[in-house]
Amino acid sequence: MKTCLIRAVTAALGMFLCAVATYMTPPLWEGVSGRDFRPQAAKMAFLILLLAVFLRKKARWRVADFALGLLVAETVTLTIISHFSGFTGREVFEPFNLRWLLDVSVFIAPPWLLGLGLGSLWLWLSERDAKRAR
């Protein structure tokens, strides 16, 4: 259980570092306005996908580690959104915050789960090839 919690925190920290790396580099394309976060979010999603593939294929993380890591990352994301919106307590779950969480989660959860799937497929194929080579 301790390992799973450490990996969950590591996953959330890794996703946070993907967001920071995205912020520090220029966007892939110009947005339609100064508030358009989609160019940066698309780059962040790609980095999160690569992180998930690496953690599944090379580090051989379990699916439970990925699920708990995603839960921690989404909780931190909702906390950050509620901090900027000014809502506290039960107000954190107001529709305004939840809409923003949904908008941001589109760039976090699907790439994370797709990376898990691609990493699992790659791991399975490499193990299958290793068995055939014997």
Features:
single chain; 134 residues; mainly alpha; 0% strand
Low-pLDDT stretches: none
N→C terminal distance? 35 Å
The helix tally amounts to 5
Overall pLDDT metric: 91
Strand content: under 5%
**How many structural domains are formed by the residues?**
1
Order of helices and strands: HHHHH
By helix and strand content, what is the structural category?
mainly alpha
Coarse morphology: globular
Largest sheet: none
Radius of gyration: 17 Å
Helix amount? over 70%
Please give the number of β-strands.
0
Question: How would you describe this protein?
Answer:
It is a single chain. The chain has five helices and no strands. It has one domain. The longest helix is centred in the C-terminal third of the chain and has 25 residues, at 109-133. The mean pLDDT is 91. The relative contact order is 0.15. The protein is globular. It has helices spanning 2-24, 38-57, 63-85, 95-105, 109-133. The protein is an all-alpha fold and 134 residues long. Helices cover 76% and strands 0% of the residues.
How are the elements arranged and paired?
Layout: H1 2-24, H2 38-57, H3 63-85, H4 95-105, H5 109-133
Question: Concise description?
Answer:
With 134 residues, the chain is mainly alpha-helical.
